[in-house]
Amino acid sequence: MSLWWILGTTLAISLIAWVGVFTLSLDEERLDRLLLVLVALAAGALLGGAVFHLLPQAIETVGGDATLPLFGWFVVGFCLFFVLEQFIGWHHHHAATHEREPVGYLVLVSDALHNFVDGLVVAGAFAVGVPVGLVTALAIALHEIPQEIGDFGVLVYGGFERRRALVLNYVTQATVILGGIVGWLLAGRLGGVPVFLLPFAAGNFVYIASADLVPEIKGEGSLRRSLLHFAVFLGGVLSMLGVRLLRPLLG
To answer: Transmembrane stretches, by residue range (predicted)?
Structure first.
């Protein structure tokens, strides 16, 4: 596995933290509309990445009758994120929720942990192959855009000065790089990243898409807005399917 691919993609993901600066000129109504479209796209990309890339790649890797444990790891990945949200307060913020400063600190801590895990997932995907790694990184990046905008809004409303909020948001986002490096080091010691990380990450993706993202766009706004959100969601799914179909050509 190439360390440079891991460093490059995790660095790109970390830079998403600065996207909040581009929202300063938007009023709350326009920002909410933009966020919902981005959330719909992220939900589709995460679901498509899990179904068309991570799970099939894991099955192809082990082959034969050894696939049942993979689905067990899928359930573990799904349930772990459920537990984290229910009992630790690891929530995804995709809208400018009106919370005060203590919640802002909670967002920073939980996001740092979340992004570290994302880095491990990226490293595990690149251990399988560059195409799988790139698709995984893309799905994570699409999810991070609305999340980071929402987190920035939480920090600013919670009393953080805007420049400080941007810097702190980036510091927590940069833990994705640390996670990627740790994943690469573990792969070196273990002679490769265990294949269970792929279905585990797929469970993570499906949980975020179904439990965090889809509920935010479900029944939101007029019929026209609902159709737009579904079309964008479907576009995210189909884009991942398209990449899967093109993989033989991409190598």
So the answer is: 6-26, 33-54, 66-84, 167-187, 193-214, 226-246
14-59 pLDDT per residue, tens: 999 998 777 777 777 887 888 888 889 989 999 999 999 889 988 8
From residue 47, alpha-carbon distances to 42, 127, 196, 247 in Å are 9, 21, 18, 18
Please tell me the predicted confidence (pLDDT) of residue 165: 85
Nearest-angstrom CA–CA distance, 224 and 64 = 47
Q: What tokens were used for 33?
A: 């509309």
Q: How far apart are CA 55 and CA 69, in angstroms?
A: 12
Residues ≥6 apart with Cβ < 8 Å to 14: 115, 170, 173, 174, 176, 177
Q: Where are the domains of the chain?
A: 3-18+27-250
| Euclidean distance between CA atoms 121 and 123, whole angstroms | 5
**Residue keyed to tokens 């889809």:** 214
CB-based burial, 23-44: b 16+ in 10 Å, e otherwise? beeeeeeebbebbbbbbbbbbb
For the chain, the farthest-separated pair of C-alpha atoms sits apart, in whole angstroms, at 56
- CA dist 132 and 138 (Å) reads 10
The reported pTM is 0.78
Q: Which among 11, 21, 14, 16 is positioned nearest to 163, based on CA atoms?
A: 21
Q: How far apart are CA 226 and CA 219, in angstroms?
A: 7
d(CA 57, CA 66): 13
Q: What is the DSSP letter of 24?
A: T
What does the alpha-carbon distance between residue 125 and residue 196 come to, in Å, rounded to a whole number? Answer: 11
Output the 3-class SS for 26-75: CCHHHHHHHHHHHHHHHHHHHHHHHHHHHHHHHHHHHCCCCCHHHHHHHH
